[in-house]
Give the backbone structure.
Amino acid sequence: MKRRHLLHLLASAPALAVLAGCGKRKGSATALKSGARVLALGDSLTYGYGAPPDAAWPVKLGEFTGWQVENAGINGDTSDGALQRLPGLLGAGSYDAILIGIGGNDMLRGMSAAATRDNIAALVSEARTHTPYVALLATPAPDAMRAAVGSLSDAPFYEEISKSGQALLVANVYSSVLSDASLRSDRIHANARGYEKVAQLLADQLKAAGWR
């Protein structure tokens, strides 16, 4: 019996090795083609407040990538507002990828952290029913002292949501740009150079993820 058991294990070893290898392989995204339709959903940072309309990062991202990026950023919007808007946007068009950058106004207004997390998680979930290409842009936690010394950092719940919702986390983009006074138009918004920097950093992370 021992000999037969050993022979069975040896015979099945190649198959087990293949399965183990498959389990360790990391899936890589297929690059989006030039002309891909991309929805940028967000607040004033997506809209491009503090700079001319043609300087907003969705516009610049389109120039860098060749994608058709629709700017669905609204000044002052919150995670709840974005959640209410998303079904209409998805019903009106078909998108190859969706970029979500929301939550800054929730934090600035002292809204419930739990509600903000739930809303953003719901946004990611709904976006993923439309396309597997969903990215979450982390927004820095409001901190006047850290902003003054140029050391803003992302609110931690974005990483949690991206992992649980299987979305690509775009980290330290808004934080790094808004930590640099020369790239800001005011305390919480970028200027034209800042939005171009956002687009470049975003494009770099999307390229590293295999989107382009």
Notes: The beta strands are 37-42, 68-73, 97-101, 134-137, 168-170. The first strand starts at residue 37 and ends at 42. The chain is about 50% helix and 10% strand.
